[in-house]
Fold each of these.
Amino acid sequence: RARAPRCAGCSLAITGKYVSAENQTFHKECFVCASCRRPLSGQHSRDGDNLSCQACYERAHPLERCAKCGSAVRGQAMRTRGQTFHAECFTCCSCRREIDGPHFRTDDGAGYLCVGCQPRCSMCNETLGGKSFVRVDGATLHKECFRCCDCSDCIDGGFFEVPKTNPFQNRKERHRCGACHTRSLQQREDVVEARAVAAEDWKKQSDAAKYKLAWRPEIMPCPNQALRDLGVVDVSAHASKGELVCITFDEASGRVGCAPVSAAHAEAAVSLPYLACVLRVLRESRREPQFSLDPKDPHDLSGPFLLKRFYPEWLGGTVVGEVLFQADYALKQLCFGDLRLPGIPSVFDGESSGGRSPRSEPAAARQWFTMRRVGITVTADGALVPHVELGVEARRLTHGPNGYIDAPFTDPNDPTARQAAAVTARFPEVVAQLPVAAQLMQLARATVLAVYLLGRGCKLNDSLLDRYRIPGVPEGSEYSIQIPTLVKDRNQSIVGSKAVDAKGLEINVHRHSRSMRGGVDLAVPGDRKVPTRAVTARLLDPRTRPVPLPLFLPAPSHSAA
């Protein structure tokens, strides 16, 4: 008895019948459920240090339920995506066979598919099971199969569908990554822009012929003819030999004359037709010649036409008026890049769309020629050498109640202001390369001479000035006062990072448009007081003597004004 085994239930010696379970020995009457105290027979489970019948154990530890039939799951089970199934309940929703291996959840999440019934990649036709995939426009693809049709890199982020170019071609849809689509769109926009530029160039050529929008050297007045018209026969003979004409002034007598001068002293030469025209303008208008190019409708910068405005009005149709207009028009062509000169940018050069918002109206500005500095050098033999420094000023325009007016402030870094500064800095080069700019310089020099002589008290010969026929353009009364509007457009494609849909990118096409007003103001700075400098050098040939210039009355006596 001392050597008899002990009961695991009551710890007493076992001398009779007993039960062995879980490596322990029990009296038959002690082998009961720890919860309901009923004898254990058949299946039982250990719960900690105690034994429980199956019913009490399942009440204390509920079993998993099959996600399909709802019954408790005992024995072999399938677990996937947080769900548990009886092995016989985990079947393919397509072929109804048990699934024992790789499987794939259906799109609606209601069931699973076996390997044989799984969907396949729309690109490689392999099954999708066990691999990452993406859904694109109704198609399902392996993530590594979703590649850009241009660069072949995997697309991870925004993408764009490549449109079909052939509607009769049955092909799989192709897609581009954001970077490649940007380049493709930019190339397309470049083609559109190139076609627009070509059409614009054709229209400009047509307009240039119709509206005479190019400088015509053949309309330049003949200096020899002007001398003959003024009755200066002696100097006319020299001019016919290719010599130039300069203006002289005798301070003592107040007499204004003219004399031939060699090409070596071209800086002293003056155009007598320009001088005669400027003298008439000063006599009638009490101000120097001016010109502006304004929109026909002051409230609509992009209207179809611009108007030429001459001050005084009768300058329209004269060679002087045409010089003013053509010089201003050439400036606009430089501004828009239609004319190119080294070192002078257009308003679009270096202008990018980054940071810019689409404009609701064209960016408007005006540029005009002005006299920056003037002067007269008087040589020992009385020759007058005019000095002129022309430049370009620019102002941004803003809308006012009566149309567009100068804005209170123009940023020096504004493309129009930078372009005007470049033209001013390189004006001698502009004069050397643009014939009409050289004519504008001649007109400016004649203006300085006219203002200087009138300021010295010289009297005009009104009768001769009235009889002298101001050189005009060939079209005469048919001269067009309006021309097509000078507006320049530029397209730019921009890919933004704003997520607007599942594709993740947004394409914006911004149109930048600029319009330009302009003019020429030949007003002499400094309240018409022309600075004068006397030098001891002589300029005229000693064998020639100045002859009176009939545009001015002879003065028997002269007192300095």
Amino acid sequence: MGNGDDELESAIQELFKAYDVDESGDLSRKEFISLELRVTMEDDHVYTAEKGTAAMTLTDRDNSGAIDANEFRDHILSSCEDLAFDTQEAIVYIRDRTKKVLHEREKMGPRTHAGIRMALKNIFRLFDVSGDGMLSPSEWIQAQKLIALEVSDDFDEGWVDEAAFACADLNGDGMLDMDEFLESSFSMFEGVKKRSNQILATLQRVEKALNVERSQGCEAVGPVQLMVQADDHPEFQPPSSAWQDDSSADGGQSEGWRPGGEIELPMRLETVEDVAAIIRIALKLPVETWFSILYLGPAGADGAKRVVQLLHGDKGGGGESNTKAMLQYLSKPNADKRIFVKNIRRRPSKLVRQQRAFLDERESLAQKRTGQCWGLDWETQLVGDGHKLPPRPFVIKLGDALVVELPQTDGCGDYWYVSHVYMDSGDVLSKPVDEAVEPKKQKKSKKKKASLAGTADKLLQLSCIAIAEGKAVMFVDLAWEDQEEKLTAAKGLRVPSRVNTIARIGPIEVEVEKNPPGSKSSAEKDGMQWWNGEKWSTKKGPAKRKKNAKK
């Protein structure tokens, strides 16, 4: 075959690729007829659906419903013969048609744009650090921040966030293949009010940035075993009782954890949220999920056991992060490559963390507290199985206060709690006003739990006062997660405790009404009313559970 013939064959192959929008190696009826129609109309020729169907039928000689490369070649050569073209004229004609087809593809949008498809494929390969033809959660998150910087001014940064990964993973295998990535990208581009050439320019910028990133190396730690709590609904316990039933104490094997899969952690991760994003994808948790992350760090000074450490702190005000220290430790050959995930709970999307009232603000709110006080105590709500919240909505009057009583310490001051109030607004209920409370001395009883019998640990009451009519939603989170390292070391636990170290009281829906005419003044009100899980009572503590009737 001469050079002219080689050139002709190459031109036909390029034209076939131009028609083959999905790069499947065959032309579907839709691909063939839609492009034939657009190119013919561009040339001011009449082209009907019947004519397109006839051309498709004649070209598809094996009646497979698709045109392969050989059938397409024969069709093009036959057309050139009908036009009485010599080899060079045929080459010019075919190349010109290739340009027209690619131009029409550009006008049809991002999904058919050859340059955009090529750029996306290159980006996929740059994402795919391992080279296995699949994108893992860690590869996805590693590229996320870089991509966000490049696309923020052009289209939605959500193109490559963790929610996008879950949506793109059509078969639910926790990985993305090329087709899933392409489909997800095209779906996003279809909602972007940008021309195809603008999208292409952005993708080329992303591709360039990824190439620079890859040239600097992409080391990762792994595989790292995820461990999740074995109980589907772990209970909350105070530190003083959280360890007592743990079989890992003093050398035993904990039965409170089960494997949740494996992940890789890029060494370039910087924050707890970076690590959490990979874990959420791997465990198929919603983006609106909070949890605690712990790992077993280097052995202590005595070398007897590894130290349980909480992953904490982020850039931007969340304290100094130990994420880098964890990654550096896990990269060592003798590291315990396990990460423990616990305290899984929903992240509030509409409720905002409330600052507590201070100084003059406290005095002003105290003057508005003129009505009944309605109390929820933490032991009734949280310890063991807990008890039901008041019916929704909980109706109170202007000047009433919703009071949540929480512990400040546990174990006679050995362990500290942290509490936060979340609320939808500060218009109906006030900011929380905190007040330290000395617990009442109680007679010691063998029946009492150790956590309940002590009198040295102070309590904290957070009061939210009804300051306007309307509805409000709030909850309170109580936590001692940052005390777990201290507890495990003191009690000889080799892994984190199996119980939750964060608990939530709520959400509580409150409706504030006006005081009816002739209502009691504050001086006439009864004392604090406590919710016992069934009704309001002057006595704090849970209602006695009814024993099941014997059959």
